Amino acid sequence: MKTKFEQMMDGLDDIEAFLAGEQEGFKAYVPQEVDVKAIRNRLGMTQAKFSDTFGFSLDAIKHWEGGRRTPEAPARTLLTVIDKNPAAVLTALNPAAVGSSKRSTVHASRYRKRQASRVPAKRKAYSAGRKRATK
C-alpha cells in the first residue's frame, strides 16, 4: 500500500501528464476506508433512516459500522460523496424532492431537537381554578 505522499506524487504526475497532453482524463481517488458511523451521525440519522435514504441495505450498514465488513469501492465512492455533499446525492436519487420539504430530511432530527429546545414550557391554565363572577 502506498503512503499518502506517494499517492499525492502519483496524482501530481498524472496532472502533469494531462497538462502536457500525454494523458487523457484522470483517475478518481477512492478512499480505502470510510467511517460510515461518523457520516451517519453527522447527518443525524439512524441506521434505518440512512439505509432508506441512500439505498444501502440495513444489514450492510450494521456490518460496516460493526467492522465485520468493509464497503466495496463503489459504496465507498458514494459514501464519500454523501459525506461531502449529501444534498447532491439526495437530488440525484430523488429529483422530485428538489424544492420540497423532503430535501431537509437529512437534518430533520437535528432541526426537531433545536426546535424542541426553543419551545417555551406550557403555561398552567389559571382560569380553570377561578370562579366566575355572577351578576
Mean pLDDT: 77
Radius of gyration: 25 Å
Number of helical regions: 7
Topology pattern, helix = H, strand = E? HHHHHHH
Description:
This protein has 135 residues and is mainly alpha-helical. The chain folds into 2 domains: 30 residues; 85 residues, lambda repressor-like DNA-binding domains (434 Repressor (Amino-terminal Domain), Orthogonal Bundle). Helix content is 53%, strand content 0%. It contains 7 helices and no strands. About 21% of the residues have low confidence.
Index terms:
7 helices, 135 residues, 2 domains, mainly alpha, 434 Repressor (Amino-terminal Domain)
What's a concise summary of this model?
This protein is mainly α and 135 residues long. The chain has seven helices and no strands. The protein has two domains: 30 residues; 85 residues, lambda repressor-like DNA-binding domains (434 Repressor (Amino-terminal Domain), Orthogonal Bundle), CATH 1.10.260.40.
Sequence-ordered SSE layout with sheet pairings:
Elements: H1 4-19, H2 36-42, H3 47-54, H4 58-66, H5 73-84, H6 86-93, H7 108-118
Helix pairs in contact: 5-6
